[in-house]
Write a structure and sequence with these properties.
about 300 residues, alpha/beta, UDP-N-acetylmuramoyl-L-alanine:D-glutamate ligase, 14 helices, 10 strands, about 45% helix, about 15% strand, binds ligand NPW, binds adenosine-5'-diphosphate
């Protein structure tokens, strides 16, 4: 499996280690695979048609994570996007994402009935965890959301750090986890060197065992589904190794799930477009200067190129 790991880790560009048929449960995600997932909008549609996406993200010192979530979801086509944010970052988020709805809560004294009404009842899909590292009681909030929400949950960053594997037993909704290798290693209680060997096996086993969709982020991001299929993405570049790139991906993923694209297709599409927007950004500003906001800036071009 060494060549295989090297390809996924970005150490080689030789993708023919992934020959279809030899191991038919593993495929690449290329343009031809995802181009039909985004449909032309119906003339008689309205914003409700394109999904209500709720984010509980950001915390003091990490307002940007929430802003990147919200703006990425808006640029991916969601009809209504809402940030449920702590009052310490409310003004920043509200002013940096004008098209998003916002609701502020008091971290010291959170009302779970407000959380239920303003986030859970509002949303077709909920994403949480990006930039939540400085939030008081975040673990309780996460636990409440997993227990109470029936819609698909996308769990990123601090959400993954705070996740106890017991929380994944008997969950009733679809759950998408978006770890990088460091976060995946923590989840498995192993170190990163363990994860980097036979990556696909570890990712698919986890996905199957815990009945979750997994987006394992790296040089070549892998999408896995509980049925045991894995899809290796082919877009993206090292310029994307910059703070907030993952927060942008979480926004895109939640958006396409909210637009009711079949879940595994939505995940492959999101990862592909995120990488493509990064590649367009790279050709415009170069890999040294690329910042996460550029991925959102070039997302429209990535979407246009993909559906053309
Ligand atoms: N503007 C904002 O609001 C921003 C907010 N953000 C928010 O900040 C929070 C914390 O994020 P963070 O970057 O400080 O720490 P985190 O991701 O937990 O990594 C720490 C550990 O993981 C490891 N590691 C990482 N990647 C790896 C890989 N691919 N493969 C292997 N290892 C990898 C890494 O290892 P090392 O660097 O030592 O190699 C280190 O040990 C989070 O909530 C996020 O949403 C950020 O998005 C930035 C912009
Ligand atoms: N060398 C690379 N090549 C391609 N994509 C990369 C590379 N490094 C990072 N990325 C992408 O950038 C994103 C980083 O996400 P993450 O580690 O969660 O960052 P953050 O927490 O700062 O938002 C992932 O989507 C990952 O696939």
């Amino acid at each position: 499996m060494n060549n295989f790991d090297d390809y996924i880790l970005g150490k080689t560009d030789t993708s023919n280690v992934l020959i279809k048929g030899e191991n038919s449960k593993i495929n690449l995600t290329e343009h031809a695979d995802i181009k039909d997932f985004i449909k032309k909008r119906a003339r008689d549609s309205h914003k409700g048609t394109y999904g209500r996406v709720g984010f509980l993200s950001g915390s003091k010192g990490m307002a940007g994570a929430c802003v990147l979530n919200l703006n990425a979801a808006l640029r991916s086509g969601s009809g209504l996007v809402k940030g449920f944010v702590t009052n310490s970052i409310y003004t920043i988020v509200d002013s940096m994402s004008l098209e998003a709805l916002t609701y502020s809560f008091d971290e010291q004294n959170l009302s779970f009935s407000d959380l239920n009404r303003e986030l859970i009842q509002f949303s077709d899909v909920i994403a949480t965890g990006s930039g939540c590292a400085n939030m008081r009681n975040y673990k309780n909030i996460l636990e409440f959301i997993i227990k109470s929400a029936s819609q698909t949950l996308v769990i990123d960053a601090e959400g993954i750090n705070q996740l106890k594997l017991e929380m994944l037993k008997n969950h009733k909704q679809n759950i998408v986890l978006t770890p990088h290798y460091g976060e995946f290693a923590n989840l498995l209680k192993k170190d990163v060197s363990y994860v980097r060997k036979d990556i696909i096996d570890k990712a698919t086993e986890f996905s199957n065992k815990y009945n979750v969709y997994l987006i394992l982020k790296g040089a070549r991001t892998i999408v896995c589904c509980p049925e045991g299929y894995a899809y290796v993405n082919t877009t993206g570049n090292p310029g994307m190794a910059t703070a907030g790139s993952g927060d942008v991906l979480t926004g895109i993923v939640a958006s396409f799930i909210g637009q009711k694209i079949y879940i595994i297709d939505a995940l492959r599409l999101s990862v592909y477009l995120h990488g493509l927007a990064g590649d367009i950004g790279n050709s415009n500003v170069g890999e040294y200067s690329l910042v996460a906001g550029d991925i959102i800036k070039y997302l429209p071009e990535a979407i246009q190129n993909t559906i053309r």
